[in-house]
Amino acid sequence: MLNKKGAMFGLDARIALAIFGALSVISGAALYTAIQEAKVTRTLTQLTEVEKAVESFLLDTGHLPGISGAMYNVHELYEDTGDTGWSGPYLSLDYDKVNRNIIYKGLSSSGDGRIEKYESDTWGVDTDGTAGGDLACDAGDKCSVWIGIYNVDRSIAEAVDLKVDGVADFKNGRIRLYESDSTPHLWLRSLNADL
After folding, report:
1. CA dist., res. 132 & res. 128, Å (int)
2. What is 60-116 written as a DSSP string?
3. What is the pTM assigned to this prediction?
4. What is the DSSP pairing of strand 175-180 with strand 183-192?
């Protein structure tokens, strides 16, 4: 009789171990999904924070920040340069004064990005985001203010594109991915740049 009880205990322990193992796999997958969703939300929140800062600047001053080449002068969102109506600073994110980059918090390995003027319509990139076309605003192009994050994780970029545009194609909609030298840059189309 003693042996049968021992055998039953071993079987019960194995069943309990299998149940705990299955539960840990399920909860681990749920935790991973929750972490990824938090990263997507953080990315989108910081992009829209910059978008709202540009909109507020425009409403207060009557114009977009100054531009040099394709790059908007980010420092105008942080420092009063004498514009009538300026009531900033408009952003709580840090910025790199030398490179004119916005410093995002916990979004990419480099953590920086810019505000630039690019074409509004379909970008000349492949559906995987690799470079292949002209983004520059030439005469006659419809142009927009684009808010970018450099060196962003591709899976996060895909999830942001899916959340905003409903499809992860990187070529159409408000979210674009542009890869340069195998470095993915995520872009959010904001205001009409021809204001």
Report:
1. 11
2. HHSSPPPEETTEE-GGGGTS--S-TT-------SEEETTTTEEE-SSSBSS-EE-EE
3. 0.78
4. antiparallel
- Report whether CATH 3.30.1690 matches the domain 38-192: yes
Q: How many of the other CB atoms lie within 10 Å of CB of 40?
A: 20
Helix (H, G, I), strand (E, B) or coil at 161: helix
Report pLDDT digits (tens) over 114-170: 888 887 776 655 555 555 556 777 777 888 999 998 888 888 888 999 999 988 877
Rounded distance between C-alpha atoms, residue 144 and residue 161, angstroms: 18
Q: Which sequence spans correspond to the domains of the chain?
A: 38-192
Tokens of 116: 């630039």
Q: Quick one: which H or E segment has residue 44? A: helix 2-61
